[in-house]
Amino acid sequence: MSDPNPDADGDPSVFARVVAPFVDRSVAERLVISVAAIFLSILVGFALVLVSGRIAECSTAAWTMPITGLGFCYNPFEVYVVLFNGALGYPFAVGDPGLFNPGWTPFNLSFGLTLSETTLLIFTGLSVAVAFRAGLFNIGTQGQLVVGALATALTVLALAPLLPAGPVAGLVLIVVGTAAGAVGGGLWGAIPGALKAYADANEVITTIMLNFVAANVAYVLVLEVFRAEGSSVVATRYVPEYAQFPSVLFPASTDFALIALLVGVAFIGALYYFVEHTSLGYDLRTSGVQAAAAEYGGVNAKLTTVRAMTLSGALGGIGGSVWVLMSEGRWMASIPDLGFDGITVSILAGNNPIGVLPAAFLFGILKGGALEIGFRTDVPTELVAVLRGLIILFVAMPEFFRMIGRYAGVGGAGGAGSTKPDESAGGDGGEADA
Amino acid sequence: MRNPLSPASLLESASESSYVRSLVVGTVGVLAALGVLGLAFPESVFGDLAGIVFSTSTGASTARLAAPIVLAGLGGIFAEKSGVINIGLEGLLIISAFVSVYAASVVGVGNAVLGVPALVIAFLAGIAASTFLAAVFAVVCIEFKADQIIAGLAVWLIALGLAPFMSTVFFGGVNTPNLGVSVGWKYSATMVVLATLGSWWLLNRTAFGKHLRAAGENPKALDTVGVSVSKVRYAGVLLSGVLSGVGGSALALSIGQFVGSGETMVQGKGFIAIVAYLFGNYNPLGTLGAGVLFAGLDAMQIRLQQLGYAIPDTLVQTIPYVVVIVVLALVGRTQIPEAAGEHYETEE
């Protein structure tokens, strides 16, 4: 980035320039950074729980610090034990003899909730990741999800009476509903894409503004036109039971369908193939890494921007479809922050579709664990929202971990990029024009 | 709108596009037409609209709502001029809004510590919190060479989680109780005007302003004359923290409560602030104008709701956001500092 006049003179150097950031920061290094970022966030979260437990008021201390004898309202160890153990449905016995809980099965309520979150996060994570690979910061996955969810709910509700109830109709409704969600989210994502490509409007700002617009417009539409009769909340009617993803193996109250997760995994595979092995995917990646080089190589950068944002929006929209057809059964006004969580998932995954799977699972554990924290401790569940931001912050500063690696004298992955710190740090930024 | 005598303004007026000017003229024109129509047909929609636009209470809430936008926007200018794009202004507003209310509730409204009234302490606490978060952002960007956009997003998301978290710890819910005190709009307006003039002076009339611009435009040149680019950039980002802190505190203390549900009470004002300074082409006076325009729209929609037109409230609330998008699309690519967003490596 410090070189003002990069490679105007031939294919090999253009290629080198394009590939360099990915070679510099190897997959292994990204993995180390992601894992280190999670640990560091958990550590900071630990301190946060400790400090707020000291300031908060309670009648009996939940935890007393050894040696000092200071009492704390929250027990930070308990918080994390509950978070991770609880997210999996308590496979580990705490306080009882033995390491494992003998009655544990993977098909329990808590683990189902965790996997339900994971499934949704796969779609929002992929949505953010695709845009990122094209050098675009799609902060609007949340809005695209809201629009997609509404499109799905309305389509399914409109078509359901026309078809005879049954599994075949259910399959048709799910497929058509999901397609409607993709179209709705895709169109909503195309707006900031077109504004970026043809009016140079920064997509970070437009997508955030469009989140507000989407939330408000969808709210008004449902409030005024599509609200279920007699509903105390602003929500549509429920879609028929047979048009929802069925809960197999897991309890129905988990709102989790194994099929939806498998669809998500299939999307991961398809997107990986698309990004890495198709010419359209190549255009997308090159314009993400070096827009000028891509133009030079004959890529229509403007069209690529619109396409990338449309695809990203469509994925966010499908996330909304799954939210309606698997989790909620209807569109309702209080939609969780899945789009913002998707940013963390994508960044944790190094914006790689394959990486989205473990990242979504990890963040699914945090989200599932947050529910358990709410049930079993006094610590506010907003803790997970803090961790979400901290993880992004730490992943964003690979140089920090390289420094630690150098000071600790650890070679290997942590210090792998230390030979060329300036290139790898700058090259990843893409075209960050405000 | 801008001082024609300042060298920076002269430079920028050359690059300023005609549509910015036509938009300003358009705004003034619409307002004038509204005034005339409102006077001519006081019983019509125009009469109501004119009544809203020119009423004192709309003016007061415009001043109240403009404070976070303009102050954060001014802060954003300092950061971006120095070469660090601070997209985390929203987070700085959120954290200062919460901390100021918290500090006021700890001291107790009406009490004073060492002769300093509670509200002043609340402001200072809000500024301190925002500046601290900005300092973290600065270290991450300057020391650890993080991608500025991603780090800025992280700052926003951290504050978006942390403020409701702390609110739940201290007050048992994401919204704090109302302290029953409010800082009047006159104070907000005074702070906004003073900060705008001060920022203009600092940017255009001092050596620091020159260094700031050099750090963003040509850091190597600044390095060559022996001024530390890092230090200048730290100063720029910290200033954005201080100014956003004033803005966030003013927002929360103007109603005496922090609202942490959804996107919190800040509701994207930090991002609107970015559009405000882009619209103002990095000129504090232009930022003031754009900020007041956006805040005025927001104030108008609040008054429109109270009049009870058949339009749903929520739909009216979207107007400012749509206008922001339209403005951003019209302004398009601005004269962003040459080296903004890039890390600078000091040459030994």
From TrEMBL, chain A:
Which CDD domains does the record match to this protein? TM_PBP1_transp_TpRbsC_like (cd06580)
**Chief localisation class:** membrane
Q: Where in the cell is it found?
A: Cell membrane
Keywords, in A-Z order: Cell membrane, Membrane, Transmembrane, Transmembrane helix
Species of origin reads Halorubrum distributum JCM 9100
Instruction: Supply the InterPro entries for this chain.
Output: ABC_transp_permease
Q: Where is this region: Disordered?
A: 415-434
| Name of the protein described by the UniProt record | Inner-membrane translocator
GO molecular function terms here?
Answer: transmembrane transporter activity
Its placement in the membrane is given as: Multi-pass membrane protein
**Iron-sulfur is among the record's keywords:** no
Superkingdom assignment: Archaea
Q: Which residues cross the membrane?
A: 31-51, 72-93, 113-132, 144-163, 169-191, 203-222, 256-275, 308-326, 383-401
Of the GO CC terms on this record, one is: plasma membrane
TrEMBL record, chain B:
Intracellular or extracellular location(s): Cell membrane
| UniProt KW DNA damage keyword | no
**Which parts of the chain span the membrane according to its record?**
20-41, 61-79, 91-114, 120-142, 149-172, 184-203, 237-259, 271-297, 309-331
Q: How does it sit in the membrane?
A: Multi-pass membrane protein
Q: Which one of the record's GO molecular function terms can you name? A: transmembrane transporter activity
Keyword list (alphabetical) reads: Cell membrane, Membrane, Transmembrane, Transmembrane helix
Where is the major localization of this protein?
Answer: membrane
Is Membrane among this UniProt entry's keywords? yes
| CDD domains in alphabetical order | TM_PBP1_transp_TpRbsC_like
Superkingdom of the source species = Archaea
- GO CC term (a single one): plasma membrane
Which Pfam families does the UniProt entry name for this protein? BPD_transp_2
Recorded protein name is Inner-membrane translocator
